[in-house]
UniProtKB/TrEMBL annotation:
Tagged with keyword Nucleotidyltransferase: no
Species: Streptomyces endophyticus
PANTHER family (alphabetical): HEME OXYGENASE HI_0854-RELATED
Alphabetic keyword roster: Oxidoreductase
Pfam (any one): PNPOx_N
Gene3D superfamilies xrefs: Electron Transport, Fmn-binding Protein, Chain A
Domain Pyridoxamine 5'-phosphate oxidase N-terminal: 20-134
Name recorded for this polypeptide: Pyridoxamine 5'-phosphate oxidase family protein
Amino acid sequence: METRGIARRPTAERMRDALERLATERDVWVSTAHPEHGPHQVPLWFVWDGRAAWMCTSAASATVRNVREEPRVHLSLPDTFDVLLVQGEAECFPDQEVPEDAAAAFAEKFGWDPRSEKGSFVYVRVVPRTVRAWRGEPELRGRIIMREGKWLG
């Protein structure tokens, strides 16, 4: 990996950059696990509300099945150089029980409102407990920017 010319960012700057990416990115990789079925990973659209990430998927999906059994999840943004990893607790909201502000934000961002579909959908909210962010090897040290739900910057 080419790391020359990369300036190590202070924690506060990494936090600001991470929050900006959470607010603007479209896709997130969602990793879940089930005690009997094992790990599962899938990309989903997401909305960041300032405190949590919101995704939506079919009520019959492996993601929903796994979260209901084991709510600890990992999220990652797709850029492998500008890494952002989130560990958190997930909670499921059936499409007719999701908070209106979360559903409206999702519909506005993607032009699609799952609540109007014929099938059953579930919104999954992930509240971060740990967030790691780094750009290349110079930033591996100090990559934790949230610990136990508290931002460090």
